[in-house]
Amino acid sequence: MGGNSTDTMSLKLKIWRQKNSKDKGGMVDYTLDGVSPDMSFLEMLDVLNTKLITEKGDSIAFDHDCREGICGMCSLMINGQAHGPQANTTTCQLHMRKFKNGDEIVIEPWRAKSFPVVKDLMVDRSAFDKIMAAGGYVNVNTGNAPDGNAILIGQGDAELAMDAAACIGCGACVASCKNASAMLFVSAKVSQLALLPQGQVEAESRALAMVDKMDELGFGNCTNEAECEAQCPKGIKLDNIARMNRGVVKGLFAARK
Amino acid sequence: MSSKSSCSFLNSVVKKQIMGVSGLLLCGFVLTHLLGNMTLFIGSDAFNKYSYALTSNPLIYFAEAGLLAIFLVHILMAIKLVIENNAARPVQYYTRKHSGRGSTFASSTMPISGVLTLIFLVIHILGLKFGTHYETEVHGVVMRDIYKTTIEYFQDPLHVLFYIIAVTSLGVHVSHGFWSAFQSLGWNHPKYMPKIKLAATAFGILVSVGFSALAVFCYFQGAK
Ligand code: HEM
Ligand code: SF4
Ligand code: FES
User: Fold this and answer.
1) For residue B96, how many other CB atoms are within 10 A of its CB?
2) Number of Cβ pairs closer than 8 Å across A and B?
3) Does any domain span residue A222?
4) Mean pLDDT of all residues in A146-158
5) Would you say residue A79 lies in a domain?
């Protein structure tokens, strides 16, 4: 380990190409030489794109922004796994040293009815924004910023809320779920507020509103497979879903509207 | 399609909870059925008396209607969920790989093991409950000799084989279903969940092995 590896790799890539949302699309084969094990997965795609552009081809569209695992823009189904083979890692943080010279790598977009493909590997994830708009915020007036430590929050709750808040909204949970369910995302967003005093007031009605929106947008139903938890790059726990399930029951009985 | 059902009383969480409650009730039935059938091991009189006690009680019609209703709810909701879940991903992946840390054989085959159970149930009820009718007398009471019907039924090795396959599939179904129901209902706790999962596996094994043992026992009982 350590230091720069001088051996470069040749890769056989199978990549989903689709001109626009109307196009049928299909897998296209590429070979790429000179891939350094120190490159990130997205850098490898940059190199391929540079090659495609110099050859007067159409570059491959994929989402990305921060490239440091915090924005949730990168996606990609890599060899059948959301964000690739490394646990707790976004595609932008995945390195080519995870692959071997001569490997075939299949790269596809997230697949879900609610995440339509825009172009190539890019999907429209605005369904998540719509779920957030349905209740992923605090609506009650909480006044000015309170004095530090005026509202005491237990260490346990603070930790759980922070763990839930680690969700970057990338959609890997939807992509990896066999039912394209968004339960892990929604439950993280419900939990990060429901665990803290300011969010508790609306905890139940929020859970209900966000679940309704999720259903309306055509995401599937959870079958408790936990593939989402396993492939989530931020280690969001299934416990959040159970917490939300409890909240929904309470919401149905306690709904004010 | 799912936007039509945006009546919030039947949202995806509630649907799963209906699955969970009906599934747990069915688990309760399966367990009682297994324990009751254990009287087979004691002998013909014990089994016939147990069966007579159940069927001669007028409440049995309510119990049967209730059980049928639970099955219908479970099956109809399962069909609805499977249709919705398939619709949620119209274009499939070119390759799919499980992480090995999430989905299991049992969890990914719930609809298949469920349908197998349903087919089995129909054959099972036709072959035994509506099977050949014999009569016998135990302590002066005339009653159905369901023991004889059962033993006769399992003289066909194909019946035994099919029975073992079916109850194994039911065992697989509940080995995921049992803990999944707890998760759906929100009865989740980091301390108890591993134990509930263990209980689910144990229950699955108990169902498969228990019912299989009964079938094999009947087969050898008749050969004597
Ligand atoms: C005695 C028989 C049965 C028992 C004890 C049983 C038990 C269960 C339990 C406990 C669950 C978990 C519910 C949850 O995750 O909340 C479940 C789920 C399921 N059952 Fe059954 N079941 C039985 C028969 C059937 C039949 C006959 C079918 C279909 C024809 C079926 C289809 C399903 C399906 C598809 C699921 C998964 C639903 C989901 O996770 O969304 N089951 N079952
Ligand atoms: S729960 Fe995990 S996989 Fe799902 S959107 Fe959030 S970070 Fe991504
Ligand atoms: S590009 Fe921001 S998380 Fe990967």
Assistant:
1) 16
2) 152
3) yes
4) 89
5) yes
Answer yes or no: do A129 and A250 share one domain: yes
A252–B3 CB contact, under 8 Å: no
Closest ligand 1 atom number to CA of residue B111: 35
Rounded Cα–Cα distance for residues B205 and B200 (Å): 9
Question: How many folded domains does chain A comprise?
Answer: 2
What are the start-end ranges of the H helices in B38-135?
A: 39-42, 44-55, 60-87, 105-108, 110-124
Range of the domain at A145: 125-254
Q: Say which DSSP state B5 is in.
A: G
Residues of chain B found within 8 Å of residue A112, distances taken between Cβ atoms: 88-89
Q: How far is the CA of A176 from the centre of ligand 2 (A)?
A: 10
Determine what percent of chain A is predicted with pLDDT higher than 90: 83
Q: Are residues A97 and A73 in the same domain?
A: yes
The model's pTM: 0.92
Q: What is the pLDDT of residues B77-87, one digit of tens each?
A: 999 999 999 99
Cα B135 from chain centroid? Answer: 29
Place of tokens 């219908």: B72
Tens of pLDDT, residue by residue over B67-111, are 999 999 999 999 999 999 999 999 999 999 988 888 999 999 999
pLDDT digits (tens, 9 = 90+) for A53-84: 999 999 999 999 999 999 999 999 999 999 99
Task: Give CA–CA dist B151/B48, Å, rounded.
Answer: 12
> Same domain for A111 and A131?
no
Residue A163, both tokens: 């763990």
Is the Cβ atom of A165 under 6 angstroms away from ligand 3? no
- At A25, which CATH number? 3.10.20.30
Q: What is the pLDDT of residue B9?
A: 79
Which of A117, A149, A166 marks a domain boundary?
A: A117
The answer to whether position A59 is within a domain reads yes
Number of alpha helices (DSSP H) and beta strands (DSSP E) in chain B: 9, 2
Same domain, A103 and A142: no
* B188·A16 Cβ contact <8 A: no
Cα–chain-centroid distance for residue A63? 12
Query: Does residue A68 form part of some domain?
Result: yes
